[in-house]
Design a protein that fits this description.
The protein is α/β, with parallel strands linked by helices. It has 11 helices and 9 strands. The chain has a domain at 101-286.
Length: 314
């Protein structure tokens, strides 16, 4: 198991407040999971009133992606979503240093035979993981009981939290690769049998291509097909979501993508987005709606989200 090296400069007093936050998160993570589930739901619904900008982003996403739903139904989805956001926030402390026995009690795999067949065939694997809110705990379970994976990440700005999050994600032998690192190392890992834990559904900016997601043009990174083509990898959609009433986390493996990659980046990326869209019901409230998925707009298209309000310095 390779853990990130500790930088002793993080012990400087200017980081003590950050370490206090890390300690609080870890202490909360020791609570029984049903208690965390209930407490997280309360905290998340309080956040609904405290963070109006994120509430506005999520509401806009729901309007764009579910125009056929009534306003009342969308508002209920929004309210429920913030409850799950609170659960996801408290689950961070659970995934930081969780023991295998506790993790085994929390994680429930479905259709595990799909992955077992591909591992037995010694094919490179890519787990296509949509941004449902249980990805941290689900990813820990995947690494601990299925296979350690490589994952791409964007390092948090706070160096204390960056070190702690990376250490947690590497605790069962997974490999962290920063998004700006050369892709050669990732390709080598895939070819050598380390699966890729791939979360693709964030706004790609101007480096993305335009493919639909829930009927909206979405700037999307077209790398999944390229990774699969370069490594002859099988792509397995993997859904990770919290079970109701504090019953843990479900990790659901779906059949591998068929006729993928096609060699056409737009078609491959559109197929990927369609898989994610199809996974939304019946747990749409657990998708990461507070992300500005449609922040980058096609030329001439109006902005969808309200402008951010910046605090003025006194």
């Amino acid at each position: 198991m390779i853990q990130p090296a500790f930088d002793t400069s993080l012990l400087h007093p200017r980081y003590w407040l950050s370490w206090s936050g890390v300690a609080l998160i870890e202490l909360l993570g020791r609570l029984p999971w049903p208690v965390l589930w209930a407490l997280g739901g309360i905290i998340g619904r309080l956040a609904y009133f405290i963070v109006p900008q994120r509430r506005a982003v999520a509401r806009c996403n729901l309007v764009c992606c579910f125009p056929h739903l009534s306003r009342m139904r969308r508002e209920w989805l929004l309210w429920t979503h913030f409850g799950w956001l609170g659960v996801a926030a408290l689950s961070q402390g659970v995934s930081w240093g969780i023991s295998r026995p506790r993790l085994q009690r929390l994680i429930h795999f479905q259709q595990q035979e799909i992955v077992a067949a591909q591992l037995a065939a010694a094919r490179p694997l890519i787990f296509l993981v949509p941004h449902f809110l249980a990805v941290d705990l689900g990813g820990a379970g995947l690494a601990a009981f299925i296979h350690p994976s490589a994952y791409m990440y964007q390092e948090p700005r706070n160096p204390v939290f960056a070190w702690r999050v990376r250490r947690a994600r590497c605790q069962f032998g997974s490999v962290a690769i920063e998004r700006q690192d050369p892709l050669r190392s990732l390709i080598r890992l895939l070819k050598r049998g380390t699966p890729l834990f791939y979360l693709p559904d964030q706004d790609a900016g101007r480096r993305g291509i335009w493919v639909p997601f829930c009927g909206q043009p979405a700037a999307t990174v077209p790398m999944l097909g390229r990774f699969a083509a370069l490594t002859d990898a099988v792509v397995i959609p993997t859904i990770m979501r919290f079970a109701a009433w504090g019953r843990g986390v479900e990790v659901i493996f779906q059949p591998p993508l068929s006729e993928f990659p096609s060699g056409e980046p737009v078609a491959d990326t559109a197929q990927m987005n369609q898989v994610i869209e199809d996974a939304l019901p019946p747990h749409a409230a657990q998708y990461f709606w507070v992300h500005r998925r449609f922040k980058t707009r096609p030329p001439g298209a109006p902005a969808l989200y309200p402008p951010r309000v910046r605090r003025q310095r006194r």
